[in-house]
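Ligand: 4-nitrophenyl phosphate. Inputs:
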Amino acid sequence: MKTKVLMVCLGNICRSPLAEGILQSKVDQDDVLVDSAGTAGYHIGNPPDKRSIAVAQKYGLNIKNQKCRKFSKKDFTEFDHIYVMDRSNFSDIASLAENQEQANKVKLLLSEAEMDIREVPDPYYGGTDGFENVYQMIDTACEAIAKKLN
Ligand code: 4NP
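Predicted complex:
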């Protein structure tokens, strides 16, 4: 059975699409399924933000065919691990859990790597250097997750 990992942010157009693409590139896709979702539904059906697509492309990843979707309670049964980008995502998702087993699936992405920072900042309202910064943080965390999964 495949291990299923869900990456979650607010809009599912900036951070979690990068996390989906980056982790996917580091694992064996026969063994691990990676998806992403947002806590909000502002951008449902849209591709990732152009700035996320560009920074991914810079590192050889194509994320432009991803489609934004909203987190749904059934994701708690579908997925083994639910990684959130910040504490606000954490409380939004944890508040939807119906039991302790579901709540235990929710973790801050950056808690998987030894880093000084705990949250992936929202780059939406900033410049492109925010996306580079976010890419590097997510990459470090995904490297640690991939080591555990592979
Ligand atoms: P994300 O960034 O949570 O990393 O996808 C955001 C994208 C869109 C909005 C907020 C954050 N928004 O307010 O539309």
